[in-house]
Automatic annotation (TrEMBL):
Database matches in InterPro entries: DUF6463
Pfam annotation, one family: DUF6463
Name of the molecule in the record: Uncharacterized protein
UniProt keyword list: Membrane, Transmembrane, Transmembrane helix
Protein species of origin: Nonomuraea montanisoli
Segments traversing the membrane: 7-29, 65-86, 93-113
């Protein structure tokens, strides 16, 4: 396996682990609210009240937080991006450096705002994508 493919596989593995791990941990910790969505029939199980007219209880706020920390968070897109990069690496397709920079910057800001957090591990995944893109720009390594 060449070094570019190895870097991209590591980056994608980190992204998939962060996304899936986030959902698994949240579901485990707050199963009561997640399972409550199915009990309420799913439709509008997490109401979005933009008018501010609804009475907010601690229970309804926790339900909303559970949604935005789980399915409504970037956990699903991050895992999907990781899967896409894994697939592209397997086919030998270069991933642009801007994808890595975007991921790295997002994860640095997220990590600074939410300390301690695994956001900083996502920064590593972004930098691995950048390093892999640089290896692509330099061309194949001589044999």
């Amino acid at each position: 396996m060449n070094s570019r493919k190895r870097l991209l596989r590591w980056a994608s593995g980190i992204m998939i682990a962060l996304g899936v791990g986030h959902l698994v941990i949240l579901t485990t910790i707050d199963w009561r609210h997640v399972s409550g969505w199915a009990d309420r029939g799913m439709w509008a199980a997490v109401p979005l009240d933009l008018s501010g007219s609804a009475v907010r209880t601690a229970e309804s706020l926790q339900n909303t937080v559970t949604f935005w920390a789980g399915l409504g968070s970037f956990a699903v897109p991050l895992a999907l991006l990781g899967g896409l990069i894994w697939r592209l690496a397997g086919r030998g397709v270069a991933v642009p450096a801007w994808v890595g920079w975007g991921l790295a910057v997002w994860c640095v800001f997220g990590g600074v705002l939410l300390v301690p957090s695994p956001y900083f591990v996502g920064t590593l995944a972004g930098l691995l994508v950048v390093f892999a893109a640089r290896k692509t720009e330099r061309g194949p390594a001589p044999s």
